[in-house]
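Format notes (please read before filing issues)

Several people have asked whether sequences and structure tokens are stored in separate files. They are not. Every record keeps both together, in the order shown below: the sequence lines, then the token lines. Line labels are part of the format and must not be stripped during preprocessing.
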Amino acid sequence: MKKGSIFNLSAWLLGFGLLLSTSSCDEEEKPSIGNPPSQADAAFTYQASSASDNIIEFKASNPSLDASWDFGNGATAKGSEVTATYPFAGTYEVTLTVQNSGGSASSSQEITIDQDDPALVNNPLYAILTGGSSKTWAIDSVGVAHFGVGPNPIGAAGYYPEYYAAASLEKAGAGMYDDRYTFKLQGFGYDMVTNGDVYVNSDHAGIPPFDDTTASIVGDYTAQFPDQLGENWTLIEGNSDTTITFSGDAFAGYWAGTRTYQIINIEEEELFLRYVDAINTDLAWYIRLVPEGSGSNPPPPVPKYSLPLDFENEDPEWTTFGNSTYQIINNPDASGINTSGRVLETVHGNETWAGLFVNLENNLDFSAQTTIKLKVWAPITGTFRMKLESQADPNNFVEVDATVSTTNSWEELTFDFSGTPTEYDRLVIFPGWNVANAGTFYVDDIVQE
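Then the structure lines:
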């Protein structure tokens, strides 16, 4: 054999050894997710505490795993050793779920509580929430700042919706004011009656359980949503705050992705709640609830009017949206085609769809008079939209646009509703349509011809 051949063979053997060594290292360094927990890992034991037969202490068999508990009474907890309170007699299914990097496993056991323990519900907060048995709450739709948003963490104003606070009845038609929330002491039961729909934040529209939503006339979205009955509420009193959480798909007020609320104030006539937006966590929402049938809820009947509206001897009550405002004032430019004494002034809000509406006494009939006209004094040219709705169903509507061609002087606009059915009793106007902060508009002499 040639010397060169021996040298080449040695080099080959050295390289092969390195390759084996490298392969071995790669195999040793390859990560492993490990084995998932077994059913034995998910086993648990329990016993009554020394304080009460209705306070149960639970212990997971494998304390090395992450443990999550569902106590079957609407409450949950985490940890290998936990305690649950059962004030009321009954049978409860308790489920433990343990997990590691390899997966999870669960087991359940039924526990039986033989008798009620009234001492465990002798909490003044429970009494206020439930009235001692069952109590129904509703949004304080008439009160100022019954709904709004502020910074998270709180700002200089404290626990108050300093970014935006809703005016009285501002969100009428959004699907929130007719919702009812019943707190029950027995079993800590909770019923959410929606009357068919709820009010949903724009960023959460299209996300289950609210994937079928419709743009609301007062901003954000309205979603069809059935009553949530037979759920539970859980109140947790902490050192710095007290929270309340609802089970299942139930919630309260305006949906922003969370079912846990901080209680800012609780009294016989007020439940003021704060909750952090699940997507925009730098925002905190607020809702104020009052007992159903109190002075603030249900709202008083909304006045209704008939065309024509000329603002001379009557101040029709309009509802604004998109952060617009309005008032009835003396005509600031009594000239040209409009020398009347009083007009409607509206300052356009910061939303492109901002506007206002008025409820009518009767359905509009276009069989003979097919148009609606109005006079407008506008700071900009562009689209002025008019929308007709049914008060009973705001999703039933028709829209017609007209063009403002003159600024800073009175102009008459005509909206043709030929062929429109006789089913609309709400008139909505959008001055400066599709423009945010469009300026101050004046409107007068809304007539059907």
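For reference, the curators noted about this record: Helices lie at 3-29, 124-130. Residues 105 and 353 are 51 Å apart (CA to CA).
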